[in-house]
Amino acid sequence: MSDSGLVAALLAAAAAENAAVYGYPIAGAKLATTRDKNAARAAYDAHRAQVQDVTQWLATAGATPSPAAPVYRLPNPVVDNSTARALLAAIEESTAATYADVVAVATAQLQRDAALALQAAATREAQWRTTSVPFPGLVGRLRL
Amino acid sequence: MSDPLPSAGPLVGRRGVLRLLGIAALSAVAGCRSGKQRSTPQSPVPAATSSIGSRQPAVPPTPQPSQPARAQPTPSPLSADQLLAQRVAVAERALLAAYDAVAVAHPELAGRLAPFRADHAAHLHGLVSEAAPSSAPSSAPAANAPAASAPEVSAPPSGIAPASASPFAAGSPLAAVSSPASDTLLLHLADLERAAAAARLDDVAATSGSLARLVASIGGCEAAHAVLLVAGT
User: Fold this and answer.
1) If exposure means fewest CB atoms within 10 Å of the residue's CB, which of A69, A132, B132, B224 is most exposed?
2) What residues of chain A lie within 8 A of the CB of B213, using their CB?
3) What is the least distance, in Å, from the CA of A70 to any CA of chain B?
4) Is residue A139 part of a domain?
């Protein structure tokens, strides 16, 4: 539970949130329905708010996040509704993963806040997938 | 599809679902389990920070969480992490039973609910793996080691198949009980999932490291279930 471990986890969360803020508008433009576009807009706002929250958590831990990159490399081209949803699901899974890592090393209110942020990301991830995954934030990391 | 239970909300709980289904016997079992779950929510917490990492290598003689957790002077045969994993496992089994009960009352929902149920079966499997005393967390194949050390929570992996896990045969007297509309039951399951996700937030506070990560992820899945269950109703 070292401070450096916590700062590293929070820095990763900040980076993932910045990537989410970058990716959401790109994918949102390709979503098919107004309902999904509205959901994407709400999620975009949620991620922007999370950037602020994580920045605050880092400040409390005595650190500042790296600035957002101007451009991020997308895992796959976003060309239509399904590739857009896939990108959004991947974005949510990656933010959930960083919050899982924060939960592992944080304590008290910060640990709870990170667990709650994981739940919010997992819920959005499931909505983009239209199905749930058993271990959001641990996809590909858990060997059972 | 207005909310048929405006004030009951998430407090209805699993017993509420079971009562709705008219399954008195299972309801009694459920009461036992949720009572057990409720009776020890905080007791392992103070011990957590001091006991983590000092897992007992000995095979625990009994998987009864409440008694040793409360007796402060007597060292528990299970570590705080193992007790927490067991407590969450009890909650996951209760959710599995709730899904089974709904699938029995409304067989037409069984297919739709199967993926949700499978997630909880996976949670149980993951918790058993994590709580195995002497195996490295989340690295060893989980099927064998936990079976020897934690008999109470080791059975479920084999219960993943919905049909065999259902405690009731088709055509049992339960089928004669008039049951509520399927939408109502889906709302109740969503309430249970929401309450479970909230409980996981408390559970993570009792631990750290890989178990905290696992429990937080389970809570994420449950939060997602709560939304997905009512998405199509």
Assistant:
1) A69
2) 100-101, 103-104, 137-138
3) 30
4) no
- Cβ B85 vs Cβ B211: under 8 Å: yes
Domain-embedded: residue A136? no
CB contact under 8 A, A101 and B213: yes
Query: What value does the mean pLDDT of chain B take?
Result: 66
Among B131, B154, B138, smallest CA distance to B82 is for B131
Q: Where are the domains of chain B?
A: 12-37+79-231
Task: CATH number of the domain at A58, please.
Answer: 1.20.1260.10
Whether residues A144 and B138 touch (CB distance < 8 A) is answered with: yes
Task: Read off the pLDDT of residues A53-108 as tens digits, 9 standing for 90 and up.
Answer: 999 999 999 999 999 999 999 999 999 999 999 999 999 999 999 999 999 999 99
For A144, which of B129, B209, B221 is closest by C-beta distance? Answer: B129
Supply the pTM of this predicted model.
Answer: 0.72
Provide the domain limits for residue A86: 3-129
How many Cβ pairs within 8 Å bridge chains A and B?
115
Per the structure, the count of domains in chain A is 1
